[in-house]
Write a structure and sequence with these properties.
- Helix content is about 20%, strand content about 30%.
- It has 1 helix and 9 strands, in the order αβββββββββ.
- About 10% of the residues have low confidence.
- The chain has about 120 residues and is an alpha+beta fold.
- The chain has a 4-stranded mixed β-sheet, with no helix packed on it.
């Protein structure tokens, strides 16, 4: 009985992640793969993360980057696993009760590819 309870407790987070991932996919996330590695705190569940061109970001010292469209300076959140640049940026529109992705939106996270040495 204790082993069954322990197994249920250990599998609960896996089951919740599976449910969350599948619900986001069912409701039309434009790139469900992003849900597998970008943290929810970056607004990824609201479809607010997308691939950007390297030219849209200006590298600065100390692992910071300027988002050219907004002038915001953000520290790299993490490395991109596929060698592409990603920006997570949305603003909440209270009137429509929706998160709106656009070039001028507040940047929450940046994922930059790791450069070879």
């Amino acid at each position: 009985m204790h082993r069954l309870l322990a197994a249920c407790v250990l599998l609960l987070p896996v089951g919740l992640f599976w449910l969350w991932f599948n619900m986001a996919t069912v409701f039309g996330h434009s790139n469900p793969w992003l849900l597998s590695w970008i943290p929810a705190t970056c607004c990824v569940t609201n479809d607010c993360c997308w691939e950007v061109s390297e030219s849209e970001l200006r590298p600065l010292p100390d692992d910071n980057y300027e988002v050219k469209s907004t002038g915001q300076v953000r520290k790299r959140t993490d490395w991109s696993p596929d060698g592409k640049h990603y920006r997570c940026a949305c603003d909440y529109d209270a009137a429509s009760r929706q998160w709106v992705k656009h070039q001028g939106a507040n940047t929450r996270c940046l994922f930059i590819p790791m450069r070879g040495f």
